[in-house]
Specification:
With about 150 residues, the chain is α/β, with parallel strands linked by helices. It has five helices and five strands, in the order H-E-E-H-H-E-H-E-E-H. The protein has a five-stranded mixed sheet. The longest helix is centred in the C-terminal third of the chain and has 17 residues, at about 135-150.
Amino acid sequence: MFPLPPAMHQALDAARAAAARGEVPVGAAVVRGGEVIAVAANAPRSLCDPTAHAEMLAIRAAARALGHDRLDDCDLWVTLEPCAMCAGAIAHARLARLYYGADDAKGGAVEHGPRFFAQPTCHHRPEVFAGIGANEAGALLRDFFASIRAG
């Protein structure tokens, strides 16, 4: 087993922080040239914003930090397979690569559901690398939802 890259560690830390706040534990990090330039965690409940997914918040923060809406020289690391909304944002931001941990058979839109990047209407397709940190990310999600069901 290979050690996780620092960006995935930061995304997992953000996911843990989200869980501690009662948010679904998903974290994301945007990397440019090996440097993490933005990290975010899910915050729809705390921000009263259904679009406040970790990916969306990290993309917005990276775009502000770089002063540009195109992140074509950046990579996104996220703990869970992105949904259709986030996949759309990834395409619009022109992110070069997407690395994600756990699959999301119900809500994912990269390898599951609509397979957003495979659609002919998708104007930008990042390179996709799945399963990085999947065990850790999956355990965070399973534990979070088990605690809700038990609670």
